[in-house]
Amino acid sequence: MQRDLTLAVVGVGAVGAEMVRVLCQRRFPVRELRLMGRTAREIEIDGRRHSVIAAEDSAFDGVDVALFAGTEGEKGAAVTFAEGAIRRGAVVIDNGSDFRMDPRVPLVVPEVNAAALEQHEGLIANPNCSTIQMVHALKPLYDLSRIRRVIVSTYQSISGAGGAAMKELQAQLRACVLGEEIPGFDAIPCQLAMNVLAGSFRFKENGFQDEEMKLTYESRKILSDDAIAISATTVRVPVVIGHSEAVYLESERKVTADEARSALRAFPGIRVVDDPAPTEKDPYARTCPTALDATGGDETLVGRIREDPFAPTGLHLWCVADNLRKGAALNAVQIAEELIRRGLLAR
Question: How sure is the predictor about 74, in pLDDT bands with cuts at 50, 70 and 90?
């Protein structure tokens, strides 16, 4: 790492707090950390008090890297402040969705396409949380044989909808356990406790939800292959943290399950949790990663790797990741680390 940096985190909700946590855990070379929000105030993260200053153009003076925590589906703070921050010499890494498909803006998962950072013009986009873990798992398989088709169903935790939604789910679960009336719906469109929601994201004119189309378009951009046919179904589940995905893919040549396991095990940031053989104690048991296994961790966990018996080049897998970490905060910090490693910061 080079000299210590002045770093800003813009937005101090669930993702912003996780960014602060990740920076500390990874010993990022920070000389000064500025937390910015809509209003100036004090917050607490892991028992430590932090001062938050109001976000405005002048607050970015002297900032080397600005991490924008972003808000999915809404115009994020980067729309307002990124240009001014860049003019002042900062490199902006935006977790929001506003710039991801801009052809001038690299969309990066460092283990997958770090070379795209070489073309940055001051702004880099962090992909959608569900996209990050999927392309992370797909890349080593794509390198074995080009992928032609992907069908994915996601099972997404409520933390992807923000801190208010997390509290609302907890209130719903408490009411269910106590046999009380479910409280009103503000951050979540309807009851999620003891339920799953296959239509809780914004719908597009084609009948797909915006979250589903992000998986399609962002994955193609990251893998630099607009010919991959990607179809997604996104589902919100009553899990607080951790997204899970059932992924089916077809490649140009057959990739065996053993080949896939070997490639995934060798790939940075992936841990294979996949024992294809039953145990002596339980002949029906299979080792498979869960959302709880991924929570608080930095790896994408992959299991249930199996060949499709009805499609010659078909392969199934299951992957899980902490959507606040690898799906957001960690990936953004890894981008910053890669910029340092490649000498791509402006100052």
Answer: low
Residues 6+ apart with CB under 8 A from 104: 121, 123
Tell me which of 120, 136, 243, 319 is the catalytic residue: 243
Residue 243 is a catalytic residue: yes
Helix (H) or strand (E) holding 165: helix 163-178
- C-alpha 100/C-alpha 126 separation (Å) is 7
Active site residue 120: no
- Domains, the chain, ranges and CATH? 5-127+327-341 (3.40.50.720), 131-323 (3.30.360.10)
pTM as predicted: 0.94
Q: Which residues pair with 49 in a beta bridge?
A: 44
- Predicted confidence (pLDDT) at residue 1 exceeds the cutoff of 90: no
Vertex 294 angle, CA 106 and 162, to 5°: 65
Task: State the catalytic residue, choosing from 129, 176, 288, 319.
Answer: 129
Q: Could you give the C-alpha distances from 105 to 25, 99, 193, 213, in angstroms and in order?
A: 28, 7, 38, 18
